[in-house]
Amino acid sequence: MDEIQEILEDFLVEAFELIEQLDQDLVELDTRPEDLELLNSIFRVAHTIKGSSSFLSFDVLTKLTHHMEDVLNKARKGELKLNEDIMDVVLESIDMMKELLYCIRDNGNDTAIGMDLDDIINRLEAVSEGKDILEDVAKEEVEEEPEEVKEPEKEDSEEDYSNMSDDEVEAEIERLLSEKKAEAKKKRAAKEEKPAKKPAKKPAQSTKASSSKPTKSAAAAPPAKKQASTLEQTIRVEVSRLDHLMNLIGELVLGKNRLLKIYDDVEERYEGEKFLEELNQVVSAISLVTTDLQIAVMKTRMLPIAKVFNKFPRMVRDLSRELGKGIELKISGEETELDKSIVEEIGDPLVHIIRNSCDHGIETGEIREQCGKDKTGLIELKAYNEGNSIVIEITDDGKGLDADLLRSKAIEKGMITEQEADSMNDREAFALIFKPAFSMAAKVTNVSGRGVGMDVVKTNIEKLNGIIEIDSEVGKGTIIKMKIPLTLAIIQALLVGVQEEYYAIPLASVSETVRISLDEIYTVEGRNVLRLRDEVLSLVRLSDIFGVKQVYEPGEYTYVVVIGLAEAKLGIIVDTLVGQEETVIKSMGDYLQGINGIAGATIRGDGGVTLIVDIASLMEMAKGLKVNIRESMQTKNKTKNSPSDYTVLIVDDSKMDRTIMKKSMEPIGISIIEASNGQEALNMLKSGEHDIDVMLIDIEMPRMDGYTLASEIRKYSRYKNLPLIAVTSRTSKADRLRGVESGMTEYITKPYSPEYLENVVRKNTKLIAE
Amino acid sequence: MADKLNQILQKQQQQILKPDKTDNIIQLVGFIIGDEEYAIPILNIVEIIKPIEFTRVPSVPDYVLGVFNIRGSVIPLIDLRRKFNLTPMNNTGDTRYIVMKGEENTAGFVIDRLTEAIRIKADRIDPAPDSIGGDKGMIYGIGKREDSMLTILKVESLLKRDF
Lengths: 770, 163
Hints:
The complex is a heterodimer of chains A (770) and B (163). Chain A folds into 5 domains: 2-231, Four Helix Bundle (Hemerythrin (Met), subunit A) (Up-down Bundle); 239-300; 304-485, Heat Shock Protein 90 (2-Layer Sandwich); 490-634, CATH 2.40.50.180; 643-765, Response regulator (Rossmann fold). Helices cover 50% and strands 19% of the residues of chain A. Chain A is built from 28 helices and 23 strands. In chain A, the strands form 5 sheets. Chain A has a 6-stranded mixed beta sheet. Chain A has a 5-stranded mixed beta sheet with strand order 2-4-5-7-6, covered by helices on one side. A 5-stranded mixed beta sheet of chain A has the order 16-8-9-18-17. Chain B has one domain: CATH 2.40.50.180. Chain B has 4 helices and 11 strands, in the order αβββββαββββαββα. In chain B, β1 (25-33) and β2 form a beta hairpin. The radius of gyration of chain B is 20 Å and the shape is elongated. Chain B starts with a helix and ends in a 5-residue tail after the last helix. Classes of the chains: A alpha/beta (770), B alpha+beta (163).
């Protein structure tokens, strides 16, 4: 029972592979009907599937493929001239064959869907007999394929095809039985070890390939030949094994990051030591190898995008027949490779986009001629690499998108207000087609028009962290550009700092970063926007979205990270840009699954955890946010009227010194707070409780001295200009220099006169004595 | 020969039976949160560590402090004081993170202080009284000891996400 199951699985894998090839060949045949090589390979596919299915007693499938083979065989021998009508019947029968194979895969038999074959068989017979008169066989051409010679002869001699197929079935059974025996033998040998089961299967397959060649069975020879050539170079590996490998590499990358970080620390501490050189060599070698390894493993998971592209020629052909338009599909870059998981996701969006192009984009032949365009429409499907992502471009030379029409349609459907429509540029208007239930089609056809397709496109591309761009010109055509990251497991991320927290933004979604001044932020209807070149960009603060505690206020300038996802763009305000880093997405477990705005976490070089931003949900969250950024960033700058609105912070470990300073400043009437060491002062500053205007700092203090405190304070952009006045008994020039280096504004040496201190404070707070 | 074999077999049998008798002794680890002593089964504990740095996670209840890295895994950190609606407290020298593992989840829990490993007979554990059973069913039972009571917590419900 198990063996049958295994044979069945092999059969299905093989059959689906063959069919994929078949589809492509058939469409190509459309353009080159005389190509004998093509016809032969198509015939072989039908033949192989027939042979295997009869062995596995899938009678329905056998019957269908048998009649297909009948037609193809005649075409191959030149008895039948292939034309569009015959191709339609053949293609239809191939579709039915696919359906039957799916049925077998899902149900284990071919009767579950109860397909009615009579009609198609009658038509197949009709086309095959309709031109049966052409007896002058072009045998010489057939001779090209030595393996093939036997077959035509055999089939020539017999009119009764059912008889023939029985013979074949017999041969096939014999072949498969011997194969089974060989397999069983191998199994018995490897009885004890279970893992050996899988490898044992492979040799069996290859024996099939090699042993069937010498046998007289012409039926098995052609596919076997094909298999033999591919088997030599490839191994089928379970995806889960590759996934596991990828996970391990992920750990290694994290380890490498860690190592690099440690090396930096060590380098700083033991500068000039000899062993550093060696360590450096080892660290760079390891990091190089890790990167190579990562790329190599990534490559094993890569599939050419041809896997997806292959089905489109057929689809476009069918659509063009159905819609009565002439459409040509040009494919390039199909060898471009993508991660397997992405290839799986990319198929559906492409189907929808191409269907749309065929149905709405390309005009009918007459209209095209009226517009002075070539009668046949052209759709170009292009894939190419760009940095760490892959770009897929779908171009059509159809009627293009009319931005004004889109706007009015959206207003009509109540999706946007008229005001919104007015403020939209063309690109934003094009993006309207991604809104669910938005359709430009006048009527719903069975090809498109329900307003579902483009929504699917958007959702799938979002899932992949991809970006969609639409460009269109009325009458000229439309270009849809999709940019998708190469892989999902290890991603390049931009690390940003928000207050004291760090977040990683997937670099694939980042289109640029800009530094802006607060004055450039405008508020339009409660939305914060930035004019970036010719675009208006919505802005949000990452700290508002994630509720980050406001420890300190950012300075006059701030950074904006412009992110794009699918068709949308958003500017995110962050405090600092840290840099680019390789990150491995780690799940935070079920407990924290699906937190809004967070895609996962990654471990940094220092062993700390950094959260990775989920761009899609972040954009959702940004929509609901109503904070006036400019206002909230400026509220702190309230006007100060009386001297008591100003605050001075005294940092000194001696109580007496603090009292002296307080006394000196009494005449100003300024508010005074105190800290007894650097650490305490820094915490007070960071807590934001007090709005400090000037600081008096002693140099020698426990826990954190004055120099360190000053340099710490200067790290915060908000305090770049806060007056820091050193008050100390250290008078040497070197001390003064160090004071300047650490960021002190003034240097007062003890002992000082109360008036002098008072004046310095007045000067720095601009509270001039009246 | 057969006798000897029998003897050995009997011995083995006894050895197997012995732990059976002690089986109703449950091993727990006790710890303090606020003023009360709690305990959880020792087998659910992955490890107990001193406080380390963690990363805050946005949009979660306040008792989820964030996530931290333990040997390459990122796991959540939950403050039991806040979870039990006690006033939050800064870490002291006695504060520990207990990393607990359930069937699906692993998480770290902040506790005030560890007490000891406890062996208690199963029949000394009463089921949680109904009146406090409403506390989201976090209590497995009350262990009676000579001089004190012990609240035994249900690890599975501690590890269950309830937001």
